Amino acid sequence: MSVETPGCGYGGGFALIVVLFILLIIVGAAFIGC
């Protein structure tokens, strides 16, 4: 992933938020599945 972003800090923060959001969805789906 070599994407040129104007703000490296913002890009890293956005990626972190996306990862946490995906994990939240996976955990939520697991709890709903049970």
Mean pLDDT: 77
Q: The biggest beta sheet, please? A: none
Order of helices and strands: H
Number of strands: 0
Q: Percentage of helical residues? A: over 70%
| Poorly predicted segments | none
Q: Shape from CA axes?
A: rod-shaped
Whole-Å distance between the termini? Answer: 35 Å
**Which band does the percent of strand residues land in?**
under 5%
Q: What structural category do the secondary elements indicate?
A: mainly alpha
Radius of gyration: 14 Å
- Helical segment tally? 1
Main location: membrane
Keywords: Membrane, Transmembrane, Transmembrane helix
InterPro entries: YjcZ-like (IPR010070)
Membrane topology: Single-pass membrane protein
Structure report:
The chain has 34 residues and is mostly helical. It has 1 helix and no strands. It has one helix at residues 8-33. It is a single-pass membrane protein.
Concise account of the structure shown:
InterPro entries: YjcZ-like. This protein has 34 residues and is mostly helical. The protein has one helix and no strands.
SSE arrangement:
Elements: H1 8-33
Pfam families: YjcZ_2
Family: Belongs to the SscA family.
InterPro entries: YjcZ-like (IPR010070)
Notable features of this structure?
mainly alpha; 34 residues; transmembrane; rod-shaped; transmembrane helix; 1 helix; YjcZ family sporulation protein; YjcZ-like
